[in-house]
């Protein structure tokens, strides 16, 4: 009886850990939004020739942190989510296709506003 109880408790703990891990993974839509914002930040910073590379890298890290906060996430969650998509090439391809669509949409909106 003790072994059965221990097994049930172990299964419960494993289930809780899996639920926690899965909940920390960003959805496809969330990941697309975060990646789009990061790409826009890169585009703005890395096209500037005024600053030294280390200054630009530091500015990007600051911007990345602000982006994570705006999306209520962090670098570790983004990395975990990305790794999850790396394990499934079809989902990763779809993710990048959607990211490109999102960036193209933002570019068209920017052009129209000018």
Q: How many individual helices?
A: 5
The gyration radius over C-alpha positions equals 20 Å
* Uncertain stretches: 1-11, 13-22
Structural class computed from helices and strand pairing = mainly alpha
Distance between the termini: 73 Å
Mean pLDDT: 80
Strand content: under 5%
Order of helices and strands: HHHHH
- The helix content is over 70%
- Domains (count): 1
Key terms:
single chain; 114 residues; 5 helices; disordered N terminus
Describe it for me?
By secondary structure, the chain is mainly alpha-helical. The chain has one domain (26-113). Helices cover 84% and strands 0% of the residues. It is built from 5 helices and no strands. The protein has helices spanning 2-23, 28-46, 53-70, 75-86, 89-113. The longest helix has 25 residues, at 89-113. The protein is globular. The N and C termini lie far apart (73 Å).
């Amino acid at each position: 009886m003790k072994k059965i109880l221990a097994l049930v408790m172990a299964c419960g703990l494993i289930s809780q850990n899996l639920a926690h891990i899965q909940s920390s993974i960003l959805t496809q839509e969330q990941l697309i939004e975060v990646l789009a914002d990061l790409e826009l930040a890169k585009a703005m910073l890395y096209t500037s020739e005024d600053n030294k590379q280390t200054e630009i890298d530091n500015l990007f890290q600051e911007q990345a942190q602000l982006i994570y906060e705006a999306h209520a996430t962090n670098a570790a969650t983004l990395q975990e989510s990305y790794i999850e998509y790396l394990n499934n090439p079809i989902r990763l391809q779809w993710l990048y296709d959607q990211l490109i669509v999102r960036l193209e949409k933002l570019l068209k909106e920017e052009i129209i506003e000018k």
